[in-house]
# Entry
Amino acid sequence: MYQFNYVKAKSLKEAGRLLASHGEAKLVAGGMTLIPTLKQRLARPSHLVDITQLAELQGIKLKAGRLEIGAATRHHQVAASAVVRKAIPALAQLASVIGDPQVRNRGTLGGSVANNDPAADYPAAVLGLGATIVTTQREIAADDFFQGMFATALKDGEIVVRVVFPVAKRAAYAKFAHPASGYAMTGVFVAQTGDGVRVAVTGAAPGVFRWKQAEAALARNPKAAALEGVALDASGFNSDIHADAAYRANLVRVMAKRAVAKLGRR
Amino acid sequence: MAHTAHHHFPAPKMRLEDTRLITGSGKYAADWDLIGQLHGYFLRADRAHAEIVAIDAGAALKHPGVVGIFTGEDAVRAGYVNAPHALNFPGKNGMKTRAPKRPALAHGRIRFVGEAVALVVAESVHAAQDAAELIEVQYRDLPAVVSPEAALAPGAPQLHDDVPGNMPLETEVGNAAAVEQAIAGAAHVTRLKMEVTRVAPSPMEPRACTVVHDANADSYTLHVCSQGYTTLRAQLSAYTGVPRDKLNFEVRDVGGGFGQRTLAYPEYCALMIAARATARPVRWVSTRSEGFMTDSHGRANIISGELALDKAGKILAMRLDWVNDMGSYLGPGAMGHIRNTSSCMTGVYRIPALYANYRVALTNTTPVAAYRGAGRPDISYVVERLVSQVAAELKVDAAELRRRNFIPTDAFPYTTATGSVYENADLPGLLDQALKLADWKGFAARRKKSEQAGKLRGIGISTVIENTGAGNAPKDDIQIDLDARGEVTVHTVSKAQGHSHETTFAAIVAAALQIPIERVHVRQCMPDMQHVLTGNHTGGSRSTVGAGSVCHLAALKVIEQGKPLAALELGVEPSQVEYAKGAFRTRESRRAVKLADLAKGKTFTVAAEGKFGSTQPNGCHIVEVEVDPDTGATDIVSYCAVDDCGVVINHAVVAGQLHGGVVQGVGQVLGEQVVYDRASGQMLTASFMDYCMPRAGIVRGIRGEEHPTPSKVSPLGVKGMGESGCTASLPAATNAVIDALRPLGIDRLDMPLTPATVWHAIQSAKEKAQ
# Structure
């Protein structure tokens, strides 16, 4: 770790001010990605601005058919929340399989979404449910928010405040965990809403994406069998020592089928 | 069982060390915090193979807080270059081992990613790390070779000028002509090439060492994680030329060893140089990433095997061709890869003709040393995979083929074709018990059930035996001190790294003295004993057989030496004195002399010694798996283990050792592996994000039973057992996965059997079938 200044922000405004006045300042919430990065000296922020305990970033609320979750909400809180389990059980289930107990008790929704790790679980739910990311500056639709590996629509100094999830009719998440890291080797979130079906895939490609051909097939027939033979472009898929692109492409289909099968069981 | 009838080993509910360890009162190597200590940070090679053209430490030396910077020049000047090794085998055709020098800090050339190039010593670890980043090393890159087979091929990049062909040793065992003849006349020959992959043992406690130099005595004290000071001291002395009596160690609790913590690492030698030069304690704590790159690796063997049988399915001969990857330098810990694989080569079978050829290879990778089993899991993997393979080819039940070839119970003691002597075992009885426990006969029905659920079910078996114990020390010493309160202190050289010595050894002494176990206190590797007691470090499954047996002898000696003193006190002849439950009495008198009374004036001390040879624990493990054909993922659905560890002192401790070994073996089969990039030599698995360390849940609900045949090697009847879990699980788990896939036409697949590997094998098999 290099030396840095630690500041615990008292308000979102103050956090924004600190980011604006120190070019090399970084936000920290759960720190589940940032702290290991610092320990390996792969980042050199001048300031760490801690926003974990800001009141504005807390809370889980169901409002007019929309589930609002504060950005600093920890994964475990989402997994254990009676409100989430009732409104969107698939979201609680997804939160319950992120990382390990230590990660789930430190890591936050906002942190995961803002970091947009290509193998993180939350982006699949946010995109799959067509959620809205509310920031200190505006509201961003999930479809516009995620922009590839570790890239988002967030501008410098913009802070995620909460994520607003429309309550789907049915939703399910199927994940094949990476055997070493516990991240998603491939995870597929399927949601059936009033407008149709959304299928979001994480882990397989450099960033979370919607499998639109599968959405069309499932809109016609919301059964796992409908995914047989549906086109899937795996040309840009990740390939590494653990799994090549062909294997990940297989997992996308298998996990999508399993998610759809779970839908049917509710 | 007459052998053990008089032993009643007390088994406390919790291990005697548990309260200390689970309440955070353990003291590990990094817990030492010495007044005036400096902090060391190693600058490490960022590439696999290169000449060091120049090192410019000028800016780093000026960095605030820096006290000294040391490089290969300092190591060479100190003469710290003779890294010890133990490949003391006669080579083929008179060849002698060519051991390369290894300066404690790289000199002139680096040969693997992570090799220490400089040691920066500063007032804080951050200052040292900051300064290390200011050191400019000018390298001239050389081509790297990370595969042992490629390293032995003509034209490969050469690592050491004095090791031509990257082959420090070629050696052989057995009878080549007899094997050749048997194979030529055999009804059936099975051939299989196998790899026992390179793994990173990764104990929970990272490596750490703080060195203090005492200028007055010109001696060194190392606060370090170690499996026992005798081995470490001998190796360090060989490496540095510092006499053994000038080397002292502070070793309290050790968080895992697995063979990796026996070694005199070059970092320790470099810290000695720094501590002497700065006249202050110098402390270094490894990071996990450093651990992956510089703690010794395990296994890393490639084996081509041939097994020849007659028409009746009797094994006639086995021939093995080994390539042993030792990494970039020879270390002192990898002799087991040859010694143990040849001494246990016949496995549990009566094989008349055996031959093995070994080619040791040096590669641009982390040096390899013993890892839990040290070759025993490797050879059992090879033999047991060959046997299961041939059973499938001959369409004979895998258990039946084993039974047909077992060394018969009445043939013990049995001398193998490579010259080992196995003391005893009851292999048919062991097998029967395991088959029953695992419901071997019911497998077909279970397979059908899995099939209906879309899963491929497989069953795998291993029947294994291993030579354990012995050790290089001339003897094992134990000292027992008895104090005036009647408390009994037992001093050992043997050092637990999670093995429960404090409970097991206390139970042995308490049983012999017939006193409560709570009154017996086991002290391991204490500094004031280090130049008094000698013996073996803990490793090779030897501690209970060796040190444990001497604990028993020492306790008996307390009684024997106490009797004349008690007789004086009681005013009778020693022959009239009897001992029971902590007191000496005569039959006639009601007066008693308690153990505590012997120590009234001063501590009553008894020393005992002994040397105990090898014992052969054996076992039969049966594993069932379900493979998901859609993802290639393997689930261990049943794990049954029947083991013969001889007499068991503490059943929970033995079960714990077995479980740990089983999980380590299964972990290696299903995912663990160190992977290097072939072109650059960079390690691709240098963190737990990429290195598949098995989680506890990988094997659930191991069902274990004991099938003891007591050993006469030890007065306790015990056999070594710290490694047998690994030895049996590597082949059993692999055989189970192969069995699941065999109906698809897959029978050549090697570890790690990751989901992706298995899925691809299934796809290829499907394509072939079409």
